[in-house]
Specification:
The protein has about 160 residues and is α+β, with helices and mostly antiparallel strands. It contains two helices and six strands, in the order αββαββββ. The chain has a six-stranded antiparallel β-sheet, with helices on one face.
């Protein structure tokens, strides 16, 4: 049974995201095909909750090869998108200009297919933020249905 969403999906305001792709680029170093966020909708630092999304299109780099005739958003890219949202949050939470790299991925479950075109919505909840390690639980949704969940550990360098 999937966990409950970390926030009300119906309350997310896609028309007025808190941070644009240009804002995300000021913190996250990923570029070109590996920018896995379209925007960050909100960050509630007091509650440790965040939301972001990635608009997936039939023109995305992975579509041609995964899987021809039936494109499926790869699970590893779902994890990467969650990690990029978490990395932004962690970098802001600890301050400074540190790069936050993968330290681990745990308890990942894929609960549905993600087929473009669609909006892949991410929710995150901070579990622990320390100068040398941070952990966020993450969830992914398409059309209100949970398709992914997992725990991301980041290591600031």
């Amino acid at each position: 049974m999937p966990a409950q969403p970390f926030c009300d999906l119906n309350a997310l305001d896609f028309a007025r995201p808190a941070l644009s792709l240009d804002d995300i680029r000021k913190v996250n170093p990923q570029r070109f095909e590996f920018e896995m966020l379209t925007a960050i909708l909100f960050i509630d630092e007091a509650a440790g909750v965040m939301a972001a999304y990635k608009d997936l299109t039939p023109e995305d780099f992975w579509v041609r090869g995964h899987i021809p005739g039936r494109p499926l958003f790869p699970g590893v890219l779902m994890i990467e998108a969650a990690a990029q949202m978490s990395s932004y949050y962690i970098t802001k939470a600890i301050g400074g200009n540190k790069f936050v790299g993968f330290g681990g991925v745990d308890d990942v479950k894929f609960r549905g297919q993600v087929i473009p075109p669609c909006r892949f919505v991410l929710l995150g909840k901070s579990v622990e933020v320390r100068p040398r390690r941070a952990i966020c639980d993450c969830q992914g949704f398409v059309d209100g249905k949970m398709v992914f969940e997992g725990r991301i550990t980041g290591m600031p360098f």
